[in-house]
Amino acid sequence: TAAGLYALALGELRVSGPVTVPAYGPEWATAHRLWVRARSRVPATLSATTGGNDGDFGSVEVAAEQWQWLLMPETPRPRGGVSKVALTASAPGVVVDRVLMSCDPGYTPSGVGGMDETAPEVAGLTAEASGQYATRLAWQRADAVDLHHYNVYCGASADFEVMQERLIASPSDASYVDWGLKPGREYFYRVTALDRSGNESAATPTATARTEPIAERVFVELADVWNTTGSESVELPFSVDADTAIVLWGKVQSLNGAKSASIQVLLDGQPLGTRGISFGYICVGHGGPVLETWLWDCVSPARTRAEDPTAWPVSAGEHTLTLKRTDGLEVLYEGFVITDDLGFEPEGIVDFKVKPE
What is the dihedral angle through the alpha carbons of 217, 223, 228, 230, rounded to the nearest 10 degrees? Predict the structure, then answer.
């Protein structure tokens, strides 16, 4: 949860030994009453001591699969008070998620035991397109002193259900940019707020945004095969009807097991620089790439600043991209795609996603 709270399983397949957890009971208390919130797969006995020889809280039966508060029958008063509690289960499957110490005989815990159970409220979600590959979300900041973060969910329809598999981000600010999207697509969002006790609010009504479409999409598929051990370069001709900016996808595999490689890129004979190929996406552990395994590698401009272009500009007309091998390059290409759609990803293993400005 947001507060870092967990449940403690006292043995899954077999009974564990005593598990000690911190608990505070002052020396001046007339009696230390120990409450434990627990559940169990099978009927079992849960015992508790102060971790020493002078404090035994006794044992209780845990017989339900639902969470329940159980009061230990004994009220020890050890010298020096209580600083820890040792829990022991008689059978595997017992789970404890709260331990509560009290000196008030009239107190009975409920819920999560006196902790905050009220979730913050969030409202005012808006969504708008931010170009062709991103949307910008904003909402009213939750008015809660213990606010921890928000959860942003994205679904395929306006009535989608909020669940873990649709969680895309957990920002602390009341805004978020969802990037790496497809152009001309509609996206649906809902937001919840969480406090430091892990309470999550109801989701906002759905907000919708449609990314801007590409007016004239360039998409050129080439079936050229290039083995760099037998040929120095490959030329990839293409044409565009209007000024645009393009990237190149290449379906490639390593022939010598090297983790990375580099190629020289030229556009109409003018050098665009040397670009690297990282085979880490198809490596096993710290070893090299799995041989005879294809990787779709995106060849695009090098970027060191936010203002650097994400694609190479080209004017309307005929053009040729040329790839040239570098020293020691041993790779095999089997197909290329030239496109100005930065949201396009080929089927298979890919190594690229565009981040907007």
Answer: -150
Give the C-alpha distances (Å, rounded to integers) separating 124 from 127, 191, 271: 10, 10, 50
∠ CA 113-116-122 to the nearest 5 degrees? 150
By CB atoms closer than 10 A (0-12, 13-18, 19+), residue 193 is buried
As given in the structure block, the two tokens for residue 356 are 């907007």
Strand duo 68-71 + 44-49: pairing: unpaired
CA-CA distances (angstroms) from residue 94 to 53, 73, 214? Answer: 24, 18, 57
The distance of Cα 104 from the centroid of its chain, to the nearest Å, equals: 43
Residue 338 pLDDT greater than 80, yes or no: yes
| Amino acid sitting at position 279 | F
Q: Quick check: 92 pLDDT over 80? A: yes
208-239 pLDDT, tens digit per residue, is: 999 999 988 999 999 999 999 999 999 999 99
